[in-house]
Amino acid sequence: MQENKNRKYKKTGAVKPENKKKTGAVKPANKKPANNKSTTKSVDKKPTNRSPRNNACPYQKKCGGCDYIGIPYGKQLQMKQERIEKLLLPITRQSRVKVQPIVGADHPEYYRNKVHSVFAGAKGNRILRGIYEKNSHRVVDIKGCKLEDRTADAIIEEIRNLMPSFRMKPYDEDHGVGFLRHVLVRVASSGIMVVLVTGELTFPGKNNFVKALRKKFPEIETIIQNINNKQTSMVLGERNIILYGKGFVVDDRLGLSFRISPSAFFQINTEQTVKLYDLALQEAGLTGKETVLDAYCGTGTIGMFMASHAKQVVGVELNREATRDAYNNAKANRVKNIRFVNQDATEYLEYLASLRRESRRNVNRHEASGEKDVITSFDVLCMDPPRTGSTPRFIKAVATLQIPKVVYISCGPDTLARDLMVFTKLGYKVDRITPVDMFPQTEHVETVVLLSRKAD
Ligand code: SAH
User: Domain of 368: which CATH number?
Assistant: First the structure.
C-alpha cells in the first residue's frame, strides 16, 4: 500500500511495512536476559547478601552473567520482591497497594531457549567455545552453562567434537581467517534450529557434517549456514544458506504459531513468558469488546495473544524488522483484528492525541483529511517498553487520549518507578503490582502493573 508522505506516522499492519531488507544481525547474546530490550544498567545498588556462592558455577568470575547463582532460588525471589517493594514504595504508599508475591519459575535453571557460543582456537589446536570474557574479546571456554537449554549445549559440544575430523577450523578474529565463528541454537516447540556462522562461504564436506550432527540429534529440524566475514561484534551476517530443513522453526506454546528465523526476536524463557502474557491478559480484563493499544509491541506476540479476547488491537513498534515479523506472524495465524504501526511510540501517541484534540474542535476534520480510519479511542493500553522505559510525553499523550486502563510490563524497575510517578501525576492510580521472574539466577526482574484512570 502506498504511504502518504504527508502523514506524520507510518502505517503498517493491515498495511505491510515497505522495507523488505532483512539485516539478520543479532548482537552476541552473551548471557544477558536476551531479548531485544535496551541494556541500560540498573542504577540502584545490587543486593549484597550473595555469598557464600557454593561454587555454583565455575565460570562465574569471568562470565559474570548470573549475579544470583549459588543463592537458593527461594531467597533469590525474596530479594527481587524486596527490591521492587523498596523501589516502588512511594507509589505503593500513595496508591495504598501492596506488591503482589513474585511469580517464580518452576524451572529456574537451563531455561534459555536461545544459546549462543563463540568459537576460537587455542594452543595445541584446542578449540574453545563459549562466551566472550566480560569487557573483552577473549573467549571463555564454557560447557554446561546453568541457564542454557541442555540439548542446545550438547549440540554445540558435539559440533566442537566433530570439527577436527571435518577439518573445520575455528575462526581467528584477529586475522580474519578460519571457518567456524559462532554457533547459535534455538529450541522451539517444533524442533531445534542450528545456525553455523562461518567466516567463509565454502563449506567442504557439509553434507556429511549435517548427517553426522543429525544422527546424534534427530530433534534438529533445520541447519543453516550464516556467512559473516565482517569485522563486527554482531553474531549474524546477512546471508543464510539452508543446509537442512526449512530454515526456520515454529513455536506454538502460546496457542499461536510463531515462525522463528535465525535473527527473529523471541522471548528466551518460554515457560515464564506464558505466565507473563497470561498475567497481562488477566490484568487487561478483556471481554471481546475492547480496542487495545499494544505499545512497544516487538514482533506482536502480546497483541496477538490479546486479539482473540478483544475487538481490535493496534501495535506500535519502532524497529522495522520486528514490525514486519509482527505483520507476518499475524498473517500466518490469521489474526485479522490487529494492525501494526512502525513508528516511535511517543511520536505516534502524540499524533493520535493531536487528532483527538482537533476532532474535539472540529468533528468533521477527520473525514476532511481522510484520516477516518485512524483509531484514536482505546479501552486498554498494554505497554512493554525497553529497559530505558517510556517518556513523559508518551504518558501525557495517554492521559490526553483518556485511555481508562493501562497494563505496564516493565523489565527496568528504576524506569518503571519513574514512569509510574508521571502516570500518577496525570490522573492515574496504581491498582496492582506483580513482579515476574523471567530471568532466574540474574538480578533482572520483570513487573506487571495495572493502572486505571481516576474519574474526571
Ligand atoms: N512486547 C514484545 C517485546 C517488547 S521489547 C514482546 O513481548 O515480545 C521492547 C520493544 O520496544 C522492542 O521491540 C523495541 O524495538 C521497541 N522499542 C524501543 N524503543 C521504542 C520506541 N521509542 N517506540 C516504539 N518501540 C520501541
Answer: 3.40.50.150
